[in-house]
Design a protein that fits this description.
By secondary structure, the chain is of the alpha+beta class. The chain is built from 16 helices and 31 strands. The strands form 8 sheets. Strands 1, 2, 3, 5, 6, 16, 19, 20 and 21 form a 9-stranded mixed β-sheet that branches. Strands 15-14-7-4-17-18 form a 6-stranded antiparallel β-sheet. The chain is globular and about 70 Å long.
């Protein structure tokens, strides 16, 4: 059949549907790049999650024989009901253009400090610009606002690429003693025609984007999705899929999925479904906050708001749900954790805090967050028994702290109580000094010096000295990576030498992960002790409260 005949066939199979959710509209490409929230008919946020990228071809199929519905302009526009399997390609794909800026400060919208901050950078010879990141949405008379205004500069002769921006960011931070970063600006969207062909030979083309909806009571299946550990597999998805162009001008597949369906797939991957109900509810609220707080802060130049990897939150589509975790999501529907000023709490969490959580600014830099303060992970009786460690675990006390919980003394911190706590609460590891030296690029390793610890005893600054140089690691994650990926930065080292060179390193440590915010094993321990999910969230995120928003 000729292309013209196919076009005619397409014309006669068009139907028109009533406007659906708020993700419908005339300019779909503009909508998918925006930070605006979309809502379903049921009043739930619609989240767009990238599930594949960098492809020259993708295959989308229906989960039942009724076929896939194709929407060139999204729901509310033209609809093609044809085959059950569609192969999608890009014709004439061209990459987008991104400009990079150095971030030299940030304030809240309307902050009267902004004019002075701009004036300071003008006096230093720069031309500052402002960008707004984050999002704001209102529902039932309530407004949640996570926006920040970034102040950026682009020095004369500055090259618009990420590597140069990061190098300039470091130089400006060192020179002016300020916290810096980088910010991407989409200067030009990628372009190209997206073309889909079904198994019957029907062809549909659209400029930049095509939408696919599942058949009634069905799911969409995407072939050959990359797995986190390597390899590919077919995955099924609730909601809709749209295929558009990524920054390189290749195909990106994005799942537009209602928040409750997304969380139903996420929560069992974050916490064992066999965990106590109240711990699962706490995890559901924390995961919901993470979803909404990240909107407008990541993937700012991409046609989606989140990705399905660890960079945002690992999401493997439909079929991973569990009845107990889905019930926890449903029981807390629309509930968010907010600060006293009404803003969203950044509900970060880690597997095990090792008995003491950490201050966000000490571990990661940036401004102190009153909802992310380091604290002893225990009840009042535990705090009395461990009073010497309650405020801070310093260099002198870290060895004693790491012996805590190994002698059977009670009451224990919450994260030392559950059966599954042992392997993460306290641990030992052997570190390869040659590998440490190679990663640091300092030559044969001669000394390792802890320069700073946070309130939980986590190492936040480490110096590695070798025969040919010195390297410092800043922040808990960089410290862990410098030593080969330790479970936690809460550790002490035992070092053996052969002459001036380190020959063996043995680490004794506590906890698993960064230790900021909610301790997941600790949440289980609290729930087993009778705490409600609201009690759990209040413990790990001070000066906050649960609020039902929708």
């Amino acid at each position: 059949m000729s292309r013209r005949a196919l076009a005619l066939a397409f014309t006669f199979t068009l139907t028109f549907t009533a406007a659906a959710d708020e993700l419908s509209g005339a300019d779909k490409l503009r909508v998918v790049y925006s930070n605006q929230f979309a809502w379903t008919h049921e009043g739930l946020p619609m989240v767009t999650v990238r599930v594949a990228e960098g492809r020259t071809e993708v295959v989308i199929a229906a989960s039942n024989p009724f076929g896939v519905r194709v929407h060139p302009d999204g729901e509310g526009g033209a609809e093609l009901r044809a085959g059950a399997t569609w192969t999608v390609r890009v014709d004439g794909g061209r990459p987008g253009k991104v400009r990079w800026h150095v971030v030299v400060g940030h304030v809240l919208p309307g902050d009267d400090k902004l004019p002075a901050l701009l004036a300071t950078w003008r006096e230093r010879g720069f031309v500052p610009r402002t960008f707004e990141v984050g999002s704001v949405f209102g529902v039932k008379g309530e407004v949640l606002d996570s926006r920040r205004v970034l102040v950026t500069v682009a020095p004369p002769g500055f090259a618009s690429d990420e590597a140069s921006a990061r190098a300039e960011s470091h130089e400006l931070g060192e020179k002016y003693h300020v916290e810096t970063g980088v910010h991407p600006e989409l200067a030009e969207r990628p372009r190209g025609m997206v073309e889909a062909t079904d198994e019957k030979g029907t062809v549909i083309r659209n400029d930049g984007i095509l939408w696919f909806s599942p058949p009634p009571n069905g799911l969409l299946e995407l072939k050959d999705v990359d797995k986190e550990g390597g390899g590919r597999e077919a995955r099924r998805y609730f909601g809709k899929l749209y295929v558009t162009l990524d920054g390189a001008g290749k195909l990106a597949v994005v799942n537009a999925v209602p928040e409750d369906k997304l969380l139903a797939g996420l929560v069992p991957a974050e916490m064992l479904p066999s965990s106590p109900v109240e711990a699962l509810k706490a995890q559901a609220v924390a995961a919901r906050n993470q979803l909404l707080a990240k909107i407008g802060t990541r993937h700012l130049t991409d046609p989606y708001r989140l990705c399905a990897t660890q960079h945002c939150q690992v999401y493997a589509g439909a079929g991973r749900e569990n009845e107990r975790t889905t019930s926890a999501v449903t029981a807390t529907l629309g509930e968010l954790l907010v600060k006293t000023d009404g803003s969203l709490v950044d509900t970060v969490y880690s597997a095990s805090c090792g008995g003491h959580t950490e201050d966000n600014d000490r571990a990661w830099g940036g401004s102190p967050d009153p909802s992310l303060r380091g604290l002893l992970d225990g009840d009042a009786a535990t705090a009395r028994r461990l009073a010497s460690f309650a405020a801070r675990i310093d260099e002198a006390g870290i060895a004693a702290w790491l012996k805590e919980g190994t002698d059977g003394a009670s009451p224990k911190p919450y994260c030392a109580r559950p059966r599954e706590a042992k392997s993460n609460y306290r641990w030992t590891a052997k570190v390869d000094p040659a590998a440490v030296a190679t990663r640091a690029g300092v030559g044969a390793l001669q000394s390792i010096d802890v320069l700073e610890r946070g309130v939980s005893g986590r190492v936040t600054r480490l110096k590695l000295t070798g025969a040919s140089g010195v390297k410092e690691a800043h922040g808990e994650l960089e410290v862990r990576r410098a030593l080969g990926g330790l479970k936690s930065a809460m550790f002490i080292l035992e070092i053996a030498r052969e002459g001036d060179v380190i020959s063996e390193i043995h680490a004794t440590g506590g906890g698993h992960g960064h230790g900021i915010g909610m301790c997941q094993v600790g949440a289980v321990g609290m729930a087993e002790a009778g705490a409600s999910y609201r009690d759990i969230l209040k413990h790990y995120y001070p000066v906050s409260h649960v609020k039902r928003m929708y």
